[in-house]
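[Automated response] Your request has been received and processed.

Submitted sequence:
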Amino acid sequence: MAKVPFSKLGLKKIKDDIVKIDFNGIEIEVKQYLPIDDKLQFVVNVISNAADGNRFYNPIKIEAFSTLEILFMYTNLSFTDT
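Generated structure:
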């Protein structure tokens, strides 16, 4: 099998590309790229929040916190008590 150089694929990393979405008159910003440090922090946040008192990981909590962390990391949405 012949080796293909990665540079010949013509791929580029998208930096700081933010797409703005209008939702009922509210502008929501969505990041198209997340740096590796932020991705690692994403995993740390999910794992630390999904553990119960006995250090077992609840699959339902993993799903819920993964979804929330995606919203927090990729968008400018914030959540309030009301």
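Summary generated for your ticket: The chain has two helices and two strands. The mean pLDDT is 89.
If you did not submit this request, please reply to this message.
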